[in-house]
Amino acid sequence: MIAPGPKGLHIGIDTEKIVVSPSPLKMRTGRAKRSRWGSVTELVPAEPSGRTREERLRAASQLALVLVLLSAVLGALGIAWWASTAGSVALVAFFVVEQARAARVGSIALPRGDQAHVLHAPEERTAYERAVVVARRVRRTWPALRHMIDPDDADRSLTTALAQLAAIMSRRQQIRRLREELADATQHDLPADSPAVQALAEQRLRVEGLWRLTAADANRILASINAAAIAGENLIREQRIGETARQAELAISRLTATGPSSSDAGPDLAERTAAVIAAYRELAADH
Question: Which regions span the lipid bilayer (predicted)?
């Protein structure tokens, strides 16, 4: 299992794979976008610029023309021509390389050594990416809960959980391939009492046991991260509702204290109106 390094945990996600490493990640092609959540740094490829080769060459030519004019001005001011020319060539070369890099589809480079985990299988990638999304939800609740939790301890626990989950998913990926190989090996015409067939069946049972064990471990971590997100979000909602109720209580108290005193004007008006109508009817009857 990988442990978060001194620079935290680094998670890279591109269209082909997920890379989880204790050391910073780099791009093989394209440019990167990085975002930091506590001790976790996420890296995803930036969108390609979409500029064609012709467009990039046109932009480089325009830059070169500007630099030629600038070099001429500097030469007129007494600056050595070779210095300005060398600087211009280096700048144009850098511009061309960066433009070409920006136009490519981004791909994360695989780190050296065996400390990183690389997830290629769609099932493991989907599960781990979902865990990363839920982990962001957990972290977003911490500012509102800063008086109830220790952010440093919570960050270490969540980062460690993501590191452990990466190790489990990498292991499940290997077990998945082994299960498929053993399943293919069962396509034979050998009798059931063959020693080779019995050995194969025994290994399949062992692999299935590992498969169930890693599933339980992964589900336990996924459930704990999801439970932390739900608990934090529910508590924040309760705090907001409680604050709304408190503000409403204060507003009602102010309205009650400053409102007009009770009056019998309404009932009196109704009685007087009824008396006038009754008197009018009596006069009309006499006539």
Answer: 63-83
State phi, psi for 49 to the nearest 5 degrees: -65, -25
Among residues 90, 100, 117, which one has the least CA distance to residue 56? 100
Residue type, 280: Y
Produce one character per residue of 219-255: b if its CB has 16 or more CB atoms within 10 Å, e if not: eebbeebbebbeebeeeeeeeeeeeeeeeeeeeeeee
pLDDT digits (tens, 9 = 90+) for 109-158: 998 877 899 999 999 999 999 999 999 999 999 888 888 888 889 899 99
Which pLDDT tens digit goes with each residue over 171-223? 999 999 988 888 877 766 677 777 777 788 888 889 899 999 999 999 999 99
Query: pLDDT at residue 52 above 70?
Result: yes
d(CA 158, CA 4): 11
Q: Nearest-CA neighbor of 107 among 20, 16, 193?
A: 16
Residue 3 tokens read as 């442990």
